[in-house]
Design brief:
- The complex is a heterodimer.
- By secondary structure, chain A is mainly alpha-helical.
- Chain A contains 11 helices and no strands.
- In chain A, helix 4 packs parallel to helix 7.
- The longest helix of chain A is centred in the middle third of the chain and has 37 residues.
- The radius of gyration of chain A is 25 Å and the shape is elongated.
- Chain B is mainly α.
- Chain B starts with a helix and ends with a helix.
- Classes of the chains: A mainly alpha, B mainly alpha.
């Protein structure tokens, strides 16, 4: 019997085993994640921010150009936060029943509702983050797999180009690219994506190199599978775990960098809300003690990033095969 | 060893050339005419022509690059668009402010971060470990500009404990020798200036050092944990060595490699993180200068700062590699 027919006849059996093993593995990973408190907190924060990011633009048709209410300029937070601060500061403590709920997070210099703008800003930040990770992941992985699997001149040219991008501190490169291309959210996204491509490229290249000489890849090759199909059906699935971890952590980084560009005036242009831009605008108000203009956009960024970082760390622990089955 | 140093230096050359090409092309990536972009839409044709001439935009691209590199090698970074001042001189006068801030931040981050990581690793899964690691995660999750604004509000505005604008009060005179105000005030024995400089340094340094502190603590912990599981640590304990010598002379020495690397890399990252910190605290270094140049659309300055900081970053990476090889002979051979 030739090798090809042997493989063919044993295929259904193998697939069955592979399927149940995979299910068992997934169950193991979910169990490990569920047992880890940082996965639960991170998962909750990430899920909450994704939900808000999707729901807010659907429910609230926001027109920032018309959002102007100078009568409410720098109105402090009412509602729950207002009640809390009155308990801390005021001589006459207000009862919670007296509180209105017009500006739960207060108002900014144009009398705009900060809670509303934070909601839309969060939506912007997360969409940008998702876009950046999507772009840099797909380009980076293609480059990395091609380099690791084809080797030769493809490898040296692509990896040297990655080295050049890595030679720049990433925030600086993003700043420089956006400055010359023109400050806008789209240019910011592209610039951040460019700075993150090398991380994915290097990761997937090293995975491809470690896998390309394994027995099952040699076997696939010996039955005539082409390089492209081996990459898609063998190398990519086996590199998935570290890529998922990296993508989760990278989402946090992308959110921070987007806000940093916004803070420097290189991201979303006013009057559209963006968390970094809102923070930059809050700096003059801080000197006169208007903390709410800064606190809520700042806290939102911290919670999003913390959520994805906690989740990424927990995923790394759960997906690490060396730790699997150890408890 | 010298062979390794030379080999690594040769390997850096293509990267440096790549960096220089990318930075050179930056100015040419501006959509439309760079000269118009710099001067604004209402510029007169004469002014546009003059700027094109000054920036050498009339010549073919490869020729522009050769001229630009030639000038660079002679230390000429060109002139600023506004004011026509040599960029190299300006850079030199602003650099010490950034260096001082970055050095203070990285020193504090290492001095605090390494012991934090060691304690966490030795007392793995204890309350100290969990708290430290959560703190470290929080440290990388709080962006510089959020922390900076929060510190300004708490310690500058509310408690009025610390200044948060600039490097030194304008009423205090300080003779500058090195440009590092702490060093200068010690050299000249100016204690009032020293006190004032240090109080100005605290908030920006704390803002800048949280991310490296968190990363150094995490790397130290994981590196120590890896080493503490090795057989030779068990041997050292088995032969009756106390905990202190086991941890410091056996474990830490072997765990040091990744720690050195991360400290070096963080120093490079600090230089660019300084853009945000310096902007928030009006710290007169190259980061603030970069920010001001972005606003003023003075692209040659943006180009030069990007180039210089990236070259420093490449050099730091190179030095880290060499240190790495010095500590671990296996790397030179491989």
């Amino acid at each position: 019997m030739s090798t090809a027919t042997q493989l063919k006849t044993s295929e259904p059996v193998k697939r069955l085993n592979g399927g149940s093993a995979r299910r068992e593995m997934l169950r193991d990973i979910t169990r490990r994640l569920w047992r880890n408190p940082s996965a639960r907190i991170g998962g909750f924060l990430a899920l909450a921010s994704i939900t808000i990011a999707i729901i807010v633009p659907l429910l609230d048709n926001y027109d920032p150009v018309r959002d102007n209410n100078l009568g409410a300029r720098y109105r402090p937070p009412d509602c729950l936060v207002g009640w809390l601060t009155s308990q801390l500061n005021d001589v006459e403590k207000q009862s919670i029943g007296d509180m209105t709920c017009e500006f739960p997070f207060g108002a900014d210099k144009n009398g705009r509702d900060i809670m509303r703008r934070v909601g839309h800003g969060l939506s912007v930040s997360l969409s940008v983050g998702a876009f950046v990770v999507g772009i840099s992941l797909s380009i980076g992985v293609s480059i990395g797999l091609a380099a690791g699997f084809l080797s030769g001149w493809v490898e040296s040219i692509s990896m040297r180009s990655m080295d050049v991008i890595l030679a720049f501190p990433s925030l600086l490169l993003a700043i420089a690219l956006v400055t010359v291309a023109g400050a806008s959210l789209t240019n910011g996204m592209i610039a951040i994506a460019i700075t993150q491509i090398p991380t994915f490229a290097r990761l997937s290249r090293s995975m491809a190199i470690s896998i390309r000489n394994t027995e099952y890849v040699v076997a696939a090759r010996s039955v005539g599978a082409g390089g492209f199909s081996i990459m898609l059906s063998h190398v990519l699935p086996n590199s998935l775990a570290p890529l998922i971890v990296q993508a989760t952590l990278m989402l946090g980084t992308a959110v921070i960098t987007t806000a940093a560009l916004g803070f420097l005036g290189l991201g979303q242009q006013p009057p559209w809300p963006e968390l970094g831009k809102m923070l930059a605008e809050s700096q003059p108000a801080l000197a006169s003690g208007k903390w709410w203009v800064m606190l809520f956009p700042g806290l939102t960024i911290v919670l999003i990033v913390l959520g994805f970082n906690l989740l990424g760390d927990a995923l790394r622990d759960a997906l690490d095969p060396r730790l699997r089955g150890s408890d | 060893m010298s062979k390794y140093i030379i080999r690594r230096a040769l390997e850096s050359i293509p990267v440096i050339i790549g960096v220089s090409i990318l930075v050179f092309l930056l100015l040419r990536l501006i959509p439309g005419d760079p000269a118009v972009a710099i001067l604004g839409e209402r510029a007169t044709p004469e002014n546009v022509a003059a700027i094109r001439e000054r920036l050498g935009l009339n010549k073919p691209l490869p020729e522009q690059y050769v001229i630009w590199i030639g000038n660079l090698l002679q230390g000429d970074l060109g002139n600023t668009v506004r004011g026509n001042i040599p960029i190299a001189n300006e850079l030199r006068s602003r650099f010490p402010a950034t260096i001082e801030l970055s050095l203070v931040a990285i020193t504090l981050a290492s001095v605090i971060g390494v012991p934090m990581g060691i304690i966490s690793a030795v007392r793995r899964n204890s309350v100290v470990d969990t708290t430290t690691m959560f703190g470290a995660l929080l440290g990388v999750s709080v962006p510089i500009f959020v922390l900076g604004l929060l510190l300004i509000y708490l310690f500058g505005v509310q408690l009025k404990l610390l200044p948060f604008i600039g490097r030194i009060d304008s009423s205090i005179e300080l003779e500058t020798r090195t440009g590092l105000f702490v060093v200068d005030s010690i050299l000249t024995g100016n204690w009032e200036a020293l006190q004032n400089t240090i109080s100005h340094l605290i908030l920006p340094a704390v803002t800048l050092f949280t991310v490296p502190l968190a990363i150094i603590a995490r790397i130290t912990r994981s590196s120590m944990l890896e080493v503490l599981n090795q057989d030779y640590i068990r041997t050292a304990r088995a032969k009756g060595l106390g905990e202190r010598p086991v941890i410091f002379s056996h474990a830490l020495r072997n765990a040091l490699l990744p720690i050195i690397t991360i400290i070096g890399l963080q120093l490079g990252t600090l230089l660019s993180g300084a853009v945000l910190t310096e902007t928030i605290y009006s710290w007169p270094g190259i980061g603030k200068w970069l920010f001001d140049s972005i606003i003023a659309r003075d692209y040659p300055i943006v180009q030069s700062v990007t180039l210089v900081v990236s070259l420093i970053y490449v050099i730091i990476n190179y030095v880290v590699d060499i240190l790495y090889a010095l500590v671990d002979p296996r790397i030179r051979v491989a």
